[in-house]
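Known limitations

Files may contain more than one protein. Parsers should not assume a single record per file. Below, a two-record file is shown to illustrate correct handling: read the sequence, read the token line, then continue until end of file.
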Amino acid sequence: MTVTANMVKALRERTGAGMMDCKTALTETNGDMEQAVDWLRKKGLSKAAKKADRVAAEGLIGLTTKDQVGAIVEVNSETDFVARNPQFQEMVRAITSLAPQVEGDLEKLLGLTFPGKSVSVADHVKEMVATIGENMSVRRTGHAAVTEGVVSEYVHNKAADGLGKIGVLVAVESKGDKAQLAAFGRQLAMHIAAASPAAVTAEELGPALIERERAVYTEQAKASGKAPDIVAKMVEGRLRKEFYQQVVLLQQTFLGAGGDGKLTVEQVLKTAEKSAGAPIKITKFVRYALGEGIEKKDGDFADEVAKLRK
């Protein structure tokens, strides 16, 4: 029986397996769709091991907040196609539901029992690699909590409830009105998603990051031919007026409603304090962008499709 591209497409949509794997499954089962599904499932963990060297830079960010606690998880897959697979999304959602109890400890998260299963999260992910046919991994997890106030969340490029391509948690500590705090927290989370600050305050910036910028500014200032003491003042001035305003949350220009492109986050916070009726402190934020820092390999989808015709 001839295996057509439409048959491969139907099997891939049903299982999330790779295109070549789907073609092989249909060839081996003489085009029987149900047997092909079983053939893919029977590949087992040995198949998962062969895929471990593939770059998994797609996937989803999962977020959850409850009772002044929030957690965030990044689960990677090889393709965006699999990230849209309901099975994969349910797996990410289930793993995210466990994350609040590990407080950012990835190893603990991987060791927990997967909901509704008798295996660990790590082992269930391996089973899913075999079932779906792509390399996957739970890459990282973060945590935010407050004793009083709210932990707000925001998901950008939303794929489903609590799932997307960029996720932000922000801890807003305050005794103020919860509804006002929640509204401010969400606006702040949206700002963080767009502006990608490095720290809440300048004091929280890593020394290595500051020294790197200082070195660049110093070399540029030396070209002016000015005296060393003047150069030092020029450098410190640029750090305060340029660098800190770019990467320090409180000093960034607020991108949300009410900022008008003129107010800093710190100024908007002061206004929010009046609405909430109490002081507000931003104690922590966590921002995950899907695949950031992962070296991706260029893929050729057209070439992959062409292989099916051979």
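...continuing to the second record:
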Amino acid sequence: MKRREFIFGLGGAAASLPFVAQAQQLPVIGLLDSGSPDGMTENLAGFHRGLSELGYTEGKNVAIDYRWAQGRYDQLPALAAELVRRPVAVIAATRTSAPALAAKAATSTIPIVFQTGIDPVKDGLVASFSRPGGNVTGITRLTTELMQKRLGVIYELVPKASAVGLLVNPNGPGSARQVQEMQEATRARGLALHVANASNDAELEAALAAIAQSGAAALIQGNDPLFIDWRKRIVALTISHRIPTIFFERGSVVEGGLMSYSASFADSFRQVGVYVGRILKGEKPADLPVVQPTKFDLVINLKTAKALGLELPPTLLALADEVIE
């Protein structure tokens, strides 16, 4: 079975009809993602919940054609062009701004609903949050804007730190901005910053080893879908190197990571599903304001803290929205 056929089945689509036959009868949603489906079960479930709120169920009254770039951002323009040629009724471009930018370059008529962690106005996706304009709207988690907040949270744990590390994917679309944000934040606190780059598995191991050897008291994980794909591996390396790490999404803490601070990924995917459903019912992207998060969750794994020999300050535990024991 081809990978794409398998991924299509993830959404609970009926297996009794070939995809092409269904697509001839049902409106087709194109889902364009910069990563892989690994670790995406909860997020895709959120997307389907959002669609169901508008009365849509995959395989019943809508079909979904998935395109995964597997971390190869250079493949996104071709994948977007494939969806435009189908053509699909709407494109959901998820996890970073790169899929949305590729889709926007490929079509000015097919509606696009993005889900990104970056300011979509600065990225040129929309004219403004309240009046997106054109054929593009969506949901932002403002993940990059939370970089300084994550530093503040981890600093509560290591207040005597003189240096911290930052892990980024140098090929990611928002990496330069993330580094800049963290440079400004660490400079304000009088901290040294060690930036470690990883865009493949070999580089990941070397990057975490370099952070451990640098004397950094803690690590902030940059925002990139590739790091979700490598979730278990990154968690294992941070623990083996005994580096207190704050992640950009809750799933890494569930897998054993120390802590995370973020808006809910699953809920932002649900909101993408809602907007896609509203567009399928006739609303226009230009009339749908960009959704911004209103709640951010601090998640802490107590078992991991104990394994690292860390004593969590009561003030930090009091701030936690979820504590995993």
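Parsers that stop after the first record will miss the second one. For reference, the second record is described as follows. The first strand starts at residue 28 and ends at 33.
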